TrEMBL record:
Coiled coil: none annotated. Belongs to the PPR family. P subfamily. This is Pentatricopeptide repeat-containing protein. PPR repeats lie at residues 224-258, 259-293, 294-328, 329-364, 365-399, 437-471. It comes from the Eukaryota. It comes from Dovyalis caffra. Keywords: Repeat.
Length: 502
């Protein structure tokens, strides 16, 4: 019998034995509801556990470094995997697990698509497009896009992901060609799709090219406020703030009123230059134009004031924000906790986390917890940090990410607790479906080398290379020196061979 149910029934028997039925006894409908709820919760937990077990089983068969075809064959010939029911949830979790390992991701994606009775959703295709593009596998991405087009699965969302990945890989012309060919995908060239292309180019520092394309298109595709805000962001990113100011005027000429996003983007530029006199000028201009700054504007300024060692001025600005009637949000509180922590005002940061946020009804997100966990680890309060980690795991409002674990990994190295490190690493990858990126591998390999755990470090090094994640030269160098000290000559030779290819 379930422990919760056993306890409830035991309490019910105590009440009944007292004979005080009217005021305390659990009624039959209430008990029935309790039984149903408890059973439902148990079934849901069992289902989640089974789904997680299936994810781990399939993931274990998708060997790191294998080709997608090898992975498909390995899964197809495995009786246990063939007995697993393929669901959308299973595919989503596997793709999330392998988001930094395109070979394994593509292998399990193809395997799932071949299973009888299962058909991939468009969202799964989009995830696969994004993974291939992120890992610079452009030929594979193109092939998948062609497949989607044949099956009438391409949407503007897919096109947006592909254009961003093309531009990120230095192939911005391919992004433009994709826009030109929207008609062949059954999609329309309009303000929304034009903005998608312009935004893609501007974010990849191709604002001049975006401007030329805009001048060609604006005669038959009418721009909106977002179009100009994209250019304001692009000019600021290119350190050409004068053009950003000029775009504000152009915006007005097209009948679009500059909004808080328009001004806040330029404020962000001046903040990055630590030119706070210009920042305060723009704040005054916003208020004069009837466009008061919002919480994002204030948060941006406070963050950069803190970075410039002006923590007290940053905290004064938070008071100005509250006086203006601008309500704090989660991101504001996250920055406030960070500022207080850096200013050495730890207890005030804790009070914001434990009292002010709950009292104002502002929910905590992953970044809130990550900031507190990092702060606690830095102060050597690892047990409290682990308590917050457990709290995150039970929260429905936030999802753990890599940044949650990095301070804890560092604490493990400081404490020399390799058992805790192993447990945390296992939970990160298997329990929470998080993959290690280049920074995480570097952190672990460097830490393990210093902890005299070269074999473990080399295992992670091999795993990293198998995922086509290129390590930094200094990571290779450190690992090579450590394995030589341990007389691991075969391993040293393999590392040297790899370094020659870099």
């Amino acid at each position: 019998m379930l422990p919760v149910l056993r306890s409830c029934l035991r309490n019910a028997r105590v009440v009944f034995s007292r004979g005080d039925y009217c005021s305390h006894a659990v009624s039959s409908p209430q008990l029935s509801s309790l039984l149903t709820t408890t059973t439902s919760d148990h079934q849901e937990k069992c289902l989640d556990s089974r789904n997680q077990s299936n994810v781990n089983l399939v993931a274990a068969k998708a060997r790191v470094g294998s080709s997608p075809d090898e992975i498909i064959l390995s899964l197809a010939h495995d009786q246990v995997c063939n007995n697993i029911e393929v669901t959308d949830d299973l595919v989503d979790k596997l793709l999330f697990r392998f988001k930094d390992d395109w070979k394994s991701a593509l292998g399990v994606f193809r395997w799932a698509g071949l299973r009888p009775g299962y058909k991939h959703r468009p969202d799964a295709y989009d995830m696969m497009v994004d993974i291939l593009g992120k890992m610079k596998q452009m030929d594979q991405m193109r092939a998948l896009l062609e497949e989607m087009n044949r099956n009438h699965l391409l949407t503007l969302k897919t096109v947006g992901k592909a254009m961003r990945r093309f531009s990120g890989a230095g192939k911005w012309e391919d992004a433009v060609r994709m826009f030109d060919g929207l008609g062949t995908f059954g999609l329309e060239k309009n303000t929304e799709s034009m903005n998608l292309l312009l935004d893609t180019l501007c974010k990849e520092s191709k604002v001049d090219q975006a401007r030329v394309i805009f001048l060609e298109l604006k005669s038959h595709i009418f721009p909106d406020a977002r179009t100009f805000n994209i250019f304001i962001h692009g000019w600021c990113k290119a350190n050409r703030v004068d053009e950003a100011h000029w775009t504000l005027q152009e915006m007005k000429g097209h009948g679009c009123r500059p909004c808080v996003i328009s001004y806040s983007t330029i404020i962000l530029f001046y903040c990055s230059q630590y030119n706070f006199s210009k920042v305060y000028e723009l704040l005054d201009e916003m208020e004069a134009q009837g466009c008061p700054p919002n919480v994002v504007t204030y948060t941006t300024i406070t963050v950069f004031l803190a970075k410039s060692q002006n923590a007290e001025e940053a905290l004064q600005l938070t008071q100005r924000m509250k006086s203006a009637g601008c309500k704090p949000d989660t991101l504001f509180y996250n920055s406030l906790i960070h500022i207080l922590g850096r200013a050495g005002r730890f207890q005030e940061a804790v009070d914001v986390f434990e009292k002010e946020m709950p009292n104002t009804g502002i929910s905590r997100d992953a970044s809130t917890y990550n900031c507190m966990i990092a702060m606690l680890c830095h102060r050597g309060q690892v047990s409290k940090a682990l308590t917050l980690l457990k709290e995150m795991e039970t929260s429905t409002l936030c999802k753990l990410d890599g940044q949650t674990f990095y301070p804890l990994f560092k604490s493990c190295f400081r404490l020399g607790d390799m058992n805790l490190l192993s447990q945390l690493l296992d939970d990160m990858v298997k329990k929470h479906q998080l993959s290690l990126d280049r920074s995480a591998y570097a952190l672990l390999i460097h830490g393990l080398c210093r902890a005299n755990k070269c074999e473990w470090a080399y295992h992670l090094f091999e795993e990293m290379i198998g995922k086509d994640i290129v390590p930094k030269y200094q990571t290779c160098r450190l690992l090579l020196e450590e394995v030589k000290l341990k007389n691991m000559y075969d391993t040293a030779e393999k590392i040297e061979d790899y370094m020659k290819k870099l």
